[in-house]
Every structure is written in structure tokens, then in C-alpha cells.
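Example 286, ligand guanine.
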Amino acid sequence: MAVLVDGRKLSSTILEEVASKATELREKSSVVPTLAAVLVGEDGASVSYVRQKEKACERAGLRSVTVRLPESVTEGELLARIDGLNRDRSVHGIIVQLPLPRGMDVERVVSAVAPDKDVDGFHPLNLGLVMRGTPGLMPCTPAAVCVILDSLGIPLAGLRAVIVGRSLIVGRPLSCLLLQRDLTVTVCHTRTRDLADEVSRADVVVAAAGRAGLVRGEWIKPGAVVIDVGTNPTPSGLIGDVEFAAAAERAGYITPVPGGVGPLTVAMLLKNVVSASTSCGMPRCP
Ligand code: GUN
């Protein structure tokens, strides 16, 4: 039976560090690290994610401001609001909650956030730095997966990792971070020919496809580390991309949903806000 990885406990350790750094900044330089969240429309999941981020900021002594825009906002108006936040010296981190209304150019919007305030790590410059192995502001979910792996205290070099999902938010940047840790990485996706075969050879499985129960328990190699990034709403609550009970029978370590990657992702976001408030956020700040 697998060891359950407690994401809430790991996240509270990181949030304590964030809170003490925020206190130090406030006392020494009167800076209050500030996150601006831009929420377009009223998608239920997005509203709840933004609320979670606001609450986490409040608990850690960070300031948060939420810019709420109607679903009908034009792309030009949204870009103008982002430009205003880029110029606002009291704002250190900016996130634009995704998804955006249909018809908006996500690439253009994400690229409009100043790279040194891009605490989601979605800007092409920050993604490029991840690929180079000199990350600036780290993409939060991939960083959360790395915190979990590092917490296990097992040697990672040479392990076979299979990432299920090739999104720009998780799968692709995570593949770079795992390569950096010397794992041998395979990224699977909707056109992968035999997903069961790929997963069954993995020492580390990261499920980030956004499809409930896609990764079957019987595919898991005995003793493998299983990290479930999925958050799929069902009438009985959130479930992950991994068939949890069956996978837990075989895995060495497994993350639950909820209570695994999710809380850590929020902690990594707040860590980025503090980091953006203390430097330009780039690896070599001039
Ligand atoms: N929508 C789903 N996940 C995320 C995230 O990590 N950041 C933002 N901005 N939007 C999201």
C-alpha cells in the first residue's frame, strides 16, 4: 500500500516561510508583497480558484487585489488593464485566471503580463528560461510537483518519468524541470499509441491530462511514485486523473486529490509573489 503524500503539510511549511519573509519585508522596507488577480467572467471553478488565492494571501500577510471584468470585456480592454497593473509599482505579481472567454487570444494576453510580474510563469520568456534550466519565476504546478518529488528523499537521477499531458501550464515545463533533475522523461498525450505500456514502465508517473480516472491503477509499476495533478469536478467532489484506490495498492507513494498537488501550487504562487517583490524576478537581475 502506497505512502500518501500530504500536500497540505508540505504547503504549510512553504507558506510559513512565505509569511515570515513577508513580515521581514514589511518591517525592513515597508513593502507588502501584492498579488493582482484578473478574473474575466464568472466561471464557477475560476471564481473559486481566485478566492482560494485571495484567502491564502490574507493568511500569509500578502496583499491581494482582484480585478473583476465582465465576460463581455474586449481583448483590448483586458490588455489595457494588464498594462495598468504592469505599471503599478504597488503590484508585484499578476495572474490572469484561465480559461478566458472564447475568442480571446490567450497567447497575446499571457504575453502582455510583464515577465518580472508573471507569477504564474506562463510568459514565453519565463517558459524559455525553464527550458534553458535557468528559471526566473517558476510555473507553479510544475514547481509543486518538484517539491513533492524532492520531499520523498529518494535519488531521482536516472529514474524513468512519464508525464501524461503536454499542456503549456504543466506537461511541457515539467518535462524540462525533471530533465534538469536527470530523470529520463517521456511526455504522453492524446495521440500516444499505448499509454498503458508507457505508464507501466515508469518509476514516476505524473498525471496532468485533465481526464478523470484516465490512468488506471493496474498500469502502475509496483513501488512507483504517482503524482496526480488532475482536478476533475464530479457530483461527489473533485477527483484526479488517476484511478486512486487501485493505484494506491501498487504505488510506493501517491498524492491524493484533493490535498495533494493543489495546495502546493497555491503555495508556490505566493512564493513567486514574494520573490517578485524582492527582485526583478529574473535569474541575473542587473
Ligand atoms: N487556470 C487553471 N490553472 C491555472 C493557473 O495555474 N493559473 C491561472 N492563471 N489560471 C489557471
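Summary: Residues 131 and 176 are 6 Å apart (CA to CA).
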